[in-house]
Specification:
Blueprint: E1 17-22, E2 25-30, H1 40-55, E3 61-66, H2 89-98, E4 103-107, E5 110-112, H3 114-121, E6 124-127, E7 132-134, H4 148-156, H5 158-167, E8 171-172, H6 173-179, E9 184-185, H7 189-198, H8 216-228, H9 239-252, H10 255-271, H11 273-288, E10 304-308, H12 312-323, E11 327-331, H13 334-355, H14 360-368, E12 370-373, E13 384-387, H15 393-406, E14 412-415, H16 422-429, E15 435-440, E16 449-454, H17 460-472, E17 476-481, H18 488-505, H19 509-519, H20 525-532, H21 535-543, H22 555-561, E18 574-577, E19 580-583, H23 585-597, H24 607-627, H25 634-645, H26 654-661, H27 663-676, H28 685-692
Parallel strand pairs: 2-3, 3-4, 4-6, 5-7, 6-9, 10-11, 10-13, 11-12, 13-14, 14-15, 16-17
Antiparallel strand pairs: 1-2, 7-8, 15-16, 18-19
Helix pairs in contact: 1-2, 2-3, 3-4, 4-5, 4-9, 5-9, 8-9, 9-10, 11-25, 12-13, 15-16, 18-24, 19-24, 26-27, 27-28
Bound molecules: 3-hydroxybutanoyl-coenzyme A.
Length: 701
C-alpha cells in the first residue's frame, strides 16, 4: 500500500480532497503531496466531502483514505505562524466523530500528529502492516491539539497514551493493534475497510469510550509520579508539563472540557520559545538539504562505499554505511590494522545490539556486507571512496593520490578532513572535479550531521551522489563552501579561542564545561576536546598563518607537546582512570604558572558571562562565514550546529537565538567585549549592518 513513487509526485495545491462514491460507500480521498499535511484546503475539503457524503441517502458508510506515500503526517507545520483558518483541525475531528454514518480510516505510511487525530476520530481504523503511527508534536515543542490528548487515552489507556505523546516516537501497526489504537491490520487497508463497511457496522465514538479509563486511582498515582519527575525531564517547555495536565484531563474531565484544556495548552505551546525554535529547526533542516547542485544533476546511487582508514572515524562511517545496507570496503595498513578495524567495528555493532538499537540478525547481516582489506586496489568498484587517515596534509595527500589512481571512473573521492585545505587535498587526487570534503562527526554512526564541502568546480554529479549517500545514511546534509574547517569546525575554532582566553585569564576547564552544560550542551567544550583528541586541530593551528595583532592562546599546544592528548592518552583537560574523570591538577598548576609568567592577574568568570562570551563568539563567527559565502544561509548554520555540535535544539540554533535577542543587543554586547580586548574580539561587519538596519539573520534565509 505504501507508494514510494509518491515521493516524486509533484505538489498539487488544487483539489487536495476528492469524494468518490461506489456501492453505497463514499470514499474521501486526500491527495496533497508530499505527506498529505492537513493544511486549510485539505481540512475544508474533508469537511465539505463529509457533509455531502452524509447527506446522501445512499451512503452506508464513509471511508477516509489518502493517495501517495502516506495518510496525513500531521497538521501543516508551515501554517502555525499564520492566523488560523476555519475549520480548525479539532473542529474537523469532532465533525468526523459526530457523523451519523460509520466512518472508517484506511491508514498507510506515517500516520502522525493531526493525521492520527483524524484517524482516532473515525469510528474504525485499519492499517497496512508497514504503517507507523505516532504523536510527534512534542518534538516540535507542542502537544496534540485536535483532541489527541483526550482520544488517545480513551483508546489505549493513560499509560500508553502518555508514552506515545511524551516520547513522540511512532509505533508499528502491530503494536498499535495490540494496545487498541487501531482495529485491524491488513495488506490492503482500503479494501478491508470497504469490505467491513459493506458488511454493515455501527457508529462507535471514541469520546464515549471510557473502558480504558476505569482504573482511575492507579492512573492518578501514575500521573502524580510523572509530575514529580518533571524537573528531570529534558523535553521542551511548557509542552512537557502540559502533556501531563491534558492526559490527566482525559481521566478526570468530561470530553469537551478536556478538549478545552488541551486547546489552551496547545495555544500556549505554539507561542512558546521552545516550540518556535524546534519548528524553525524542522523546516530549516529540510531547507538545508536542498543543494543548488541537485537541480538537474543525476546522482549515481551509492551502492558501494570504500573507506580508506579504519580508525575511530573510518570505523564509525563504515558502521553507518553497513547499517544502511551499503556494501562497505575498509582499507587498513597490514594485518594489524585490519584486525584493529574489525575489532572496532565489531565492538560498536555489539554495543548497538546490547542497547537494542540493532537486532542480532541485522548485526550479522551487516558484517556480511563488510570487506576489510589491506589492498588499496579493492576500492576499484566503489561509487564513493572516503579517506579518513590521520589529520596530516602530507599523509592525506599520499593516500588521496593512491585513491585517484585506483578508484573507478566517475567515483566520488572524498576526504573526511576536519581542518585541512580541501583544495590542496583535491589536487592530490588528480581529479579535483570529483572531489568533495564530506565531514562526519564522531561518533559517525550516531551524530546526524554530514557537512558537504563543495568547491566552485566540483561536478554536480559528485555533489548529488554524496548528498544521496548522506540521505541513505539517514543523516542531515548541510552544504558548505570547500574551505578549511567547513562551517562547524571554523566556528569551533573561534569558540575554542574565546574559551581558552577565559582559561588563560582565570577560569578552569571544569567551570567552563559546567557553564556550557547549564546552557544546554550535553558536554562542555573541554569534555568534547578530550573525547575527540587534542591533536586533531593542533596541526591545523600550526599551519594556519597567524595575525600578530590577534590574540593567540597556546595552552592547547603546550598540552599536545606534553602528550596530554585527551581521553586516548588518559590525560587531557581531565584525567581518566578506570572510567573516572577528574580535573587534571597538573594542568591547573600549569595555568597558574603561565598566568604568573605572563603577568595575568586571574579573574573570576560568572557562569552567565562564560555562556555569553561563547554564544557571542559563535554568532560573530557565523556572521563571518555568511559574509564569506562559506555557509549559504543562516538557517543552515543553525542546523549544522544543532546536528554537529549538539547545540541545544530547544534554542533553535545560535542565529535563531540571536534574532530573538535582537542583533542590536548582540552588537552592543560584542562592542563591550571589543572595548575590553581588541585582540580577541572584532565585530563582524554583517552583525554591525544588521544591528544598524534593525535587521535579522532570518531576513537572509
Ligand atoms: N507540515 C508541512 N510540511 C511537512 C510536514 C508537515 N506536518 N511533514 C513533512 N512536511 C514536508 C517537509 O517539510 C518536506 O518538505 P520539502 O519537500 O519542501 O522539503 C516534505 O514534507 C517531506 O518531508 P521529509 O523530507 O521530512 O520526508 P521524510 O520521508 O524523510 O519524512 C515524515 C516524512 C516522517 C512525515 C517527516 O516529514 C515528519 O516527521 N514530518 C513531521 C510530522 C509531524 O511532526 N507531525 C505533527 C505535526 S503537528 C500537528 O499535527 C498538530 C496537531 O496535533 C494539531
Amino acid at each position: 500500500m505504501d507508494d514510494p513513487a509518491g515521493k516524486s509526485e509533484p505538489r498539487r495545491a488544487k483539489n487536495p480532497v476528492r469524494l468518490e462514491r461506489s456501492g453505497g460507500i463514499a470514499t474521501i480521498v486526500i491527495d496533497n503531496p508530499p505527506v498529505n499535511a492537513l493544511g486549510t484546503a485539505v481540512r475544508q475539503g474533508i469537511f465539505v466531502a463529509l457533509d455531502l457524503a452524509e447527506a446522501d441517502e445512499s451512503t452506508k458508510a464513509i471511508l477516509i483514505a489518502a493517495n501517495g506515500r502516506t495518510f496525513p503526517a500531521g497538521a501543516d507545520i508551515t501554517e502555525f505562524d499564520q492566523p488560523a483558518q476555519p475549520p480548525e483541525l479539532g473542529k474537523l475531528c469532532d465533525r468526523i466523530e459526530a457523523c451519523s454514518k460509520p466512518v472508517l480510516a484506511a491508514l498507510h505510511g506515517t500516520v502522525l500528529g493531526g493525521g492520527l487525530e483524524v484517524a482516532m476520530s473515525a469510528h474504525y481504523r485499519i492499517a497496512a502492516p508497514s504503517t507507523k503511527l505516532g504523536l510527534p508534536e512534542v518534538k516540535l515543542g507542542i502537544l496534540p491539539g485536535a483532541g489527541g490528548t483526550q482520544r488517545t487515552p480513551r483508546l489505549v489507556g493513560i499509560e500508553h497514551a502518555y508514552g506515545l505523546i511524551q516520547s513522540g516516537t511512532p509505533i508499528s501497526a502491530s503494536r498499535a493493534l495490540s494496545i487498541g489504537l487501531i482495529d485491524a491490520v491488513d495488506e490492503d487497508p482500503r479494501g478491508a475497510a470497504r469490505a467491513l463497511a459493506e458488511s454493515g457496522m455501527d457508529v462507535r465514538r471514541t469520546q464515549d469510550n471510557r473502558s480504558k479509563l476505569s482504573n482511575a486511582h492507579e492512573d492518578m498515582v501514575l500521573l502524580q509520579e510523572l509530575r514529580a519527575g518533571l524537573d528531570q525531564m529534558p523535553g521542551p517547555q511548557p509542552a512537557t508539563a502540559r502533556i501531563i495536565d491534558c492526559v490527566e484531563g482525559a481521566l478526570l474531565l468530561p470530553f469537551e472540557i478536556g478538549c478545552a484544556r488541551e486547546r489552551d495548552a496547545f495555544a500556549e505551546c505554539v507561542a512558546s520559545r521552545d516550540s518556535q525554535a524546534l519548528r524553525h529547526l524542522f523546516l530549516s533542516t529540510r531547507k538545508a538539504a536542498k543543494f543548488p547542485e541537485l537541480q538537474g544533476a543525476t546522482a549515481n546511487t551509492p551502492e558501494q562505499v570504500a573507506i580508506v582508514g579504519g580508525g575511530l572515524m573510518g570505523a564509525g562511517i563504515a558502521l553507518a554505511c553497513l547499517r544502511a545496507g551499503i556494501a562497505t570496503t575498509v582499507v587498513e595498513d597490514g594485518e594489524a590494522g585490519v584486525t584493529a578495524a574489525l575489532d572496532r567495528i565489531g565492538a560498536a555493532l555489539q554495543r548497538s545490539i546490547a542497547k537494542g538499537t540493532l537486532s542480532e540478525d541485522a548485526g550479522a547481516h551487516a558484517l556480511t556486507q563488510l570487506n576489510l582489506t589491506s589492498r588499496i586496489t579493492d576500492i576499484s568498484t566503489a561509487d564513493i571512496v572516503v579517506e579518513t587517515v590521520s589529520e596530516d596534509l602530507n599523509a592525506k595527500r599520499v593516500v588521496l593520490e593512491q585513491i585517484g589512481r585506483h578508484a573507478k571512473d566517475g567515483a566520488v573521492i572524498a576526504t573526511n578532513s576536519s581542518y585541512l585545505d580541501p583544495a590542496a587535498l583535491a589536487e592530490a587526487t588528480g581529479r579535483p572535479n570529483h572531489f568533495v570534503n564530506i565531514h562526519f562527526f564522531a561518533p559517525a554512526q550516531i551524530m546526524p550531521l554530514v557537512e558537504i564541502g563543495v568547491a566552485p568546480d566540483t561536478h554536480p554529479t559528485a555533489v548529488a551522489t554524496t548528498h544521496a549517500l548522506a540521505k541513505k545514511l539517514r543523516k542531515t546534509p548541510v552544504r558548505s563552501a570547500a574551505t578549511p574547517g567547513l562551517i562547524v569546525n571554523r566556528i569551533l575554532m573561534r569558540l575554542r579561542l574565546v574559551a581558552d582566553a577565559m582559561l588563560e585569564d582565570g577560569a578552569t576547564p571544569k567551570q567552563i564545561d559546567q557553564a556550557m552544560r547549564g546552557f544546554g550542551f550535553p558536554l562542555g567544550p573541554y569534555e568534547v576536546l578530550d573525547r575527540s583528541g587534542l591533536d586533531i586541530s593542533y596541526t591545523a593551528r600550526q599551519r594556519q598563518p597567524r595575525d600578530a595583532s590577534q590574540r593567540y592562546v597556546d595552552i592547547g599546544d603546550i598540552m599536545v607537546n606534553r602528550g596530554w592528548l585527551g581521553r586516548k592518552a588518559g590525560r587531557g583537560y581531565y584525567i581518566y582512570d578506570e572510567d573516572r574523570e577528574r580535573p587534571n591538577t597538573d594542568l591547573l598548576a600549569m595555568l597558574d604558572e603561565l598566568r604568573a609568567q605572563r603577568g595575568i592577574v586571574p579573574r573570576r568568570f560568572k557562569n552567565q558571562e562564560i555562556r555569553d562570551r561563547i554564544f557571542l563568539a559563535i554568532v560573530n563567527e557565523a556572521a563571518v562565514l555568511l559574509e564569506q559565502g562559506v555557509a549559504s544561509r543562516p538557517s543552515d548554520i543553525d542546523v549544522a550546529l544543532v546536528c554537529g555540535l549538539a547545540y541545544p535544539d530547544k534554542r533553535g540554533g545560535p542565529l535563531h537565538e540571536a534574532d530573538h535577542d535582537t542583533l542590536f543587543a548582540i552588537a552592543q554586547r560584542i562592542e563591550a567585549l571589543e572595548a575590553e580586548d581588541t585582540t580577541l574580539w572584532r565585530m563582524a561587519p554583517l552583525v554591525k549592518r544588521l544591528a544598524r538596519e534593525r535587521g535579522k539573520f532570518s531576513d537572509l534565509n
